Amino acid sequence: MEASRFKRSSQREKEAILSGCSTGGLASILHCDNFKALVPMVAKVKCFADAWYFINAKDISGAPHIEDFYYDVVKTHSEPTRQ
């Protein structure tokens, strides 16, 4: 759903959930803040990855790309938010 139409239709919502599986699971975590911006400030927003699976193998250059990428994802979402 396009963001402008979603924002208009969600103005009375009190709770919102964003979920996904496979690569959509990763996207639901990475875009949670953007999703929260679309619903009213008073709404509770939960985002979760139902499932995801990426092979933890080295890339063509021999670097552990996926491992480093997920480390950054976890680090980003583990840091306390500033008030």
Describe the structure.
With 83 residues, this protein is α+β, with helices and mostly antiparallel strands. The protein contains 4 helices and 2 strands, in the order αβααβα. The two termini are 31 Å apart. This is Pectin acetylesterase. Keywords: Cell wall, Cell wall biogenesis/degradation, Hydrolase, Secreted. One of its GO terms (biological process) is cell wall organization. Its main location: secreted.
Keywords:
83 residues; alpha+beta; two-stranded parallel ribbon; 4 helices; 2 strands; elongated; EC 3.1.1.-
Q: What Rg, in angstroms, do the CA atoms define?
A: 16 Å
Q: Report the average pLDDT across residues.
A: 76
Tell me, briefly, the overall form: elongated
Number of domains: 1
- End-to-end separation in angstroms reads 31 Å
Unreliable spans are none
Q: What is the structural class?
A: alpha+beta
- Strand neighbour order, sheet with most strands: 1-2
Strand count: 2
EC number: 3.1.1.-
InterPro entries: PAE/NOTUM
Subcellular location: Secreted, Cell wall
GO molecular function: pectin acetylesterase activity
